[in-house]
Amino acid sequence: MENKQALQALLAALHKEPPSVLTEVQTKKAKIAILDNGLFAYSLKGEQICKGYATAKTLDGREIDTRRAELISKEVVSDEMDCICVRLLYQEGRLQLRQELAVYENGAATSQIFLHDEKELTNTRYLVPFATPYPDKEGKELFLSLDQKMLLVPYDNDMWSRYESAVPACGRKSYDVTAIYDENSLEGLVVGALEFEVWKNAIQWVAHDARSFIAYCGVADVGTHDCCLHAPVSGEWVASAPFVFFWSEDIRVGMEKYGDMCASLMPARAWKKRKVPFGWNSYSALGLGLKLSHWQEAGDFMKEELPDYCDEDGVTYVNLDGAFGLDSREIKRTIENLHARGQKAGWYANPCNWFPAGGDMPVNLVVGAGEAVSEEILDVDGNIGDLFLKDHQGNVMPAADGTVPLDVTHPMWEKMARATIRRLVALGVDYLKLDFLSHGSVEGAHYQKEYTGRMALNLAYRILSEEIDAAGREIFVSLSIAPLFPYFLGNARRSCCDTFGHHEDVRYVLNALNFAWWTNGKIYQYNDPDHVPLYLSVIDGRGATTEAEARSRYYASAISGTVMMLSDNYGPEGDAEVIRMSQERTKQFANDSKVNAIARLGKAFVPVELKDGTTPFYTLSHEGKHYAAIFNFSGERQTLSFRAERGRLPVKGSFCDIHGGEKTVYDGVISVTLEGFDAVLLEIEAK
To answer: Which of 198, 324, 347, 381 has the fewest Cβ atoms nearer than 10 Å?
Structure first.
């Protein structure tokens, strides 16, 4: 009898009538239909794209899912943002879930949910405002394909993480934003969070069917450097981050559209000068072995030997990185000398972490201004250990990338951070490289007990921004190791981790350009491709680079958006031959007026392909001019070709090296032959 009932239930499910539409909201381009089975259907230009639902879970494990819950009310409203919204209220047990779905005139849609417990304060660390059920033939065929790709966006740029284009695989995730797409046609669905104040967010292939995904709030895992669960969020009604989703015929355009949406809600940090910084950074050249004489010499070398290596005003930045223990009076004197001849000075600070990861914690913290902060400044009465973030059992958090996270919600941290920035401002610093900021977002037992990791990081960013803004002059801020979101602290963000000058470094820099070009000029003024060693890095241990590698590395930086920072030892101390070769190699490439003019545009080149690995082809169309950058990732001589139309270039025309030479006529396909690990920048003319 039991088996017969189960069979009858199965047959009833198989022959169930199609769901009916309860209500619809639509604009000229997009529509969302609310179905009676707890799903909604998103359509664009009359074609159904996909279906979705929402779910949430309380800390004690109770769940509510729109596919099971009772719909108790619905309301259609319009607002002042060119959208129409439907508000749905679901009930399951004593839990209520309010889902707000909106469609916009540009074809995009958003979903945000709010969770409420009728009997007690709502506590949750898991909200799913947008999830897809098993795909069906009513939606886009793409979602049935085993070859569909998900753009995997790393949470941050630490420890040489990379972007990926990955086939469906249970549990794989992208942080905050993704695209599900066909890598051949480039059409697909862009999905991304639009708020980064409270939650860490992810889009993940679900475990029971990798062709379905969930966009959720509350991720905390190895990708976010967390060993504690995401902190719970409490309230009468607990809101998720809103997620936007929209279909794009070319997800390159779609990702740019997403960047514009984010910037419209939270603009990038303003850079009124709007000039790409050109300069020198000490880290790759000298590591922690630098002296003030190196700083002065690098400034002299750029001023005297690199007349074209500068911004439009002729300015260069001379940046010390990790410069601990140097005399403050000599630092100030050197900065004054740089300023007197029209140069700028840069410095390094790591406000969210503490370097020694093992052994006894020291009494004082080195905070990046050349001195330890004294107990008198901090007024901590010896309780410096309170600054180290701890887990919920009272243990100091394990090191991430070799350094210990600080509790940025502690009032003592705020005092330290403000003192650090004020000291750097007083020294006359014009450029700040802020490092290890991801440590400020680690989940743990914060002093402010209700804070999530992302709330803590936002607090730290606001404190740092206040002090930098109070300087009374513009200071360029480049975030070094930092999450992609939030972004309001930085004029630039390093698009990848430490990079040096070899061919694998070129591919690594280009991986970030390949999949995150769209951040440039939108959520950050510039993408920062990190320092550029053209001859020898003392950090990477791989010896000197070849001329072809140096050219590729310089070109990769010039097309990234960009921040241009050389990083070789120009003297006066060190191996004489290394200094000589570093100077010669730098004069060869950094005086290239054609390449520097492209870098000064501040425009990121757009990838031709979004496939596995990294594409060697990038293009830019700007003010009627067209360019292409091509890289040979092989050590052997190769001919490399791409379709001009795919690169959004004129289908027919001619091209030549930007340095001149013979023009090559093309019809549909642009093709060049390059020596091993070499690169070329082309100027394109339409026929």
So the answer is: 381
Q: What is the DSSP string of 300-318?
A: HHHHHH-TTSS-TTS--EE
DSSP string for residues in 106-122: TS-EEEEEEEEESSS-E
If we measure between CA atoms, which residue out of 37, 5, 11 comes closest to residue 22? 37
Residue of 609, 595, 521 whose CA lies nearest to 559: 595
pLDDT, one tens digit per residue, over 455-511 is 999 999 999 999 999 999 999 999 999 999 999 999 999 999 999 999 999 999 999
What is the pLDDT at residue 248? 98
Note whether 436 and 403 are within 8 A (CB). Answer: yes
Residue 13's pLDDT is what?
Answer: 53
Q: Report whether 30 contacts 43 (CB < 8 A).
A: yes
Task: Take residue 67 and report the two structure tokens written for it.
Answer: 């596919």
User: Residue ranges of the domains in the chain?
Assistant: 19-265, 350-490, 606-686
The answer to whether 275 and 559 have CB atoms below 8 angstroms apart is: no
Pick the CATH number of 19-265 from 3.40.50.300, 3.30.70.100, 1.10.260.40, 2.70.98.60: 2.70.98.60
**Given phi > 0 = left and psi -120 to 50 = alpha, else beta, which region is 60?**
alpha
Q: What angle, rounded to 10 degrees, do the helices at 411-427 and 328-340 form? A: 50
Q: Which pLDDT score is estimated for 386?
A: 84
Q: If pLDDT is split at 50, 70 and 90, which confidence band does 291 have?
A: confident
What's the pLDDT at 17? 74
Could you tell me which residues are beta bridge partners of residue 642?
A: 670
DSSP 475-515: -EEEESS-BSS--TT-SEEESSSS--SSHHHHHHHHHHHHH
For residue 510, give both structure tokens: 């280009």
DSSP symbols for 463-478: HHHHHHHTTSS--EEE
Contact 203, 191 (CB under 8 A): yes
Q: Does position 318 have pLDDT exceeding 60, yes or no?
A: yes
- Mean pLDDT value across the chain: 92
Structure token pair of residue 525: 């003024």
**CATH topology (fold) of 606-686:** Immunoglobulin-like (2.60.40)
CB 527 within 8 A of CB 492: yes
> Cα 562–181–104 angle (5° rounding)?
80
Amino acid 457: pLDDT: 98
Say what angle helices 328-340 and 292-305 make with each other, to 10 degrees.
10
The sign one gets for the Cα dihedral 575, 579, 582, 588 is: negative
Given a contact cutoff of 8 angstroms between Cβ atoms, the answer to whether 248 and 141 are in contact is no
Strands 70-78 and 83-92, by their bridges, are antiparallel
Q: Name the CATH topology of 350-490.
A: TIM Barrel (3.20.20)
Helix 503-516 vs helix 547-558: crossing angle, to nearest 10: 20
pLDDT of residue 18: 84
Query: What would the two tokens of residue 609 be?
Result: 């392909």
Does residue 322 surpass a pLDDT of 80? no
